[in-house]
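User: I'm putting together notes for a lab meeting next week and I want to include a structural view of one of the chains we've been expressing. I don't have a solved structure, so I'd like a prediction I can at least talk through. The sequence is below, exactly as it appears in our construct file.
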Amino acid sequence: MASVKTRSSRLLVENILANYAYVVLMGVVTLVATPLYVHRLGASQWGVVALCMTFQGMLLILDAGLGQIMPREIARAARSGSAVPAYFASLKIYGSIALAAFLTGQLLAGYLGVQLSRGDTALQPELILALRLVLLQFLFQFPNNAAIAYWNGSEQQRLANVRQAFFTFGKHACSVLLVTCWQQNAIAYMIPFALLGAVEFFANLRRIGVGAPTSPDAHRPGLSVGGLIASAGGFSVAVVIGMLTSQIDRLYLSRVVSAELFGKYVLAANLGLTLMHLQGPVQRAFLPRIVSLEHPSRRVILQMLGLFALVCLLPCILLAGVAEPLLNFWLKNADFARVGAPVFQLIAVAVGINGLYGGIYILLIRDNQYKHLIALNAIILLAQFVSLNLLADQFSILAGGFSRLLGSCIQLIFGFVVLTKLYLSNDVKCVGRI
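Assistant: Thanks for the context. Below is the predicted structure for the 434-residue chain, given as C-alpha cells.
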C-alpha cells in the first residue's frame, strides 16, 4: 500500500513538474517570438493579428466547458478501464462542433471582416483572408483538444506536454520565418498555424488510435456521445458565460478604439494573461486526483489552495511591480511599454487573484456545481459590461484592465463563500488524501 501511494505521489509531482516545464518553454517561445512579430509586422499589421486573436477567442466560446469536463470524464472512465473509448466519444463532439463552426464561419467571413475592420476598406481583403485561415486552424486545433483531454485525464501529462511543445515551437518557428523572409503581414503569420495545426491533429489521432486495439481498455464500453453531452449539462452553460467574461473586454474595446491602440492593448493583455499558465499545471495535475477521491479532506483542500497562492498570486504581484521595465525589455519599444504597462499591471493582479480561485474551481468541476458557476459568471459578465461602459470613454484601454480586475475580485469572494459552505463547514464529511 505504501509503495502504491509513493508511486501515486511521485506521478502527481512528475505531472506538475512536466506541466511547468511546458509553461516555461512556451513562455520562452512567446518572449522571443512576439517582439519579432511586432517589429516585422509593424503596428498596423499587428493590429490585424490582434483582431484575428479576438476572433479566435470568440470561437473558443464553442468549447462550452468541454476543456474542463472531458479530462474529468476521461479520468472517471480510466478508473473503469475505458479511457480510449471515452476519447473517441469526445472526439466526435469536438469534431462536429469544429466542422459546423468552420462551414458557418467561411460563409460569414466577409461580413465579419467588414465589421472588425471598422470601415477600413484597405484592410478588409487581407483581414477576411486571415479570418479564413483562423477558421482552418480551428477546424483541426479544436478537435485536437480531445487528445489533450485524454492524456491529461489519464495522467499522461508528460507526453501531452512534449507533443504540444513540439508542434507549438514548429508553428512559431515557421511563422517567424515567413514574416521575415516572405511577407510582413498577417497572412504570413497565420499560414503555419493553420497548416501545422492539421498535421498535429492527425499525428495525435494516429498516436492514440495505434495504441487502442492492444490497450487493456480498448474494447470496454466507454461513454457515449449522448452521455458526454448529458454530463456537460448546465456546466456548459456556465462555461459559455465564463468565456464571454474572458472576451468581453476585447470585444468591447475593438469597437471603440483604433486598431493600433487595440493592438497595444492585446499585446499587454496577452502578456498578463500568459500568467494564467501558472495555475494550469497544478489544475491539470490535481483534477484527476480530486475526481478519484470520494470526499477530499480539508487538509488536501487547504494544501492545494496554498500551492495555488504560492505559484500564482505571488509571482503576479511581483511582476506587476516591474511592468514598464519588463515590457520595455521584452519589446524594445518604449511607446508600447508606456501605453501597455498599466494594462499589464491590472491584468496581472487580476490573474493572481484568479489563481487563488483555481483550487476552488477544481472542486466545483468535480461536483458539477454548475448552478453556482452560472450565477457567478452571470454576475461577473454584468459587472464587466457596466464597468466598460462607464470607464471606456475616460480611461480608454485601461477600462479593459479594470473590468478584468473587478471580475476576479467578485470571483474570489464568491468562491470562498461557496468553499466554506460546501467543503469546509463542520457538517461536511471530508476524507481522503492525495
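A couple of points you could mention at the meeting. The CA atoms of residues 144 and 201 lie 5 Å apart. The chain is about 85% helix and 0% strand.

User: Perfect, that's what I needed.
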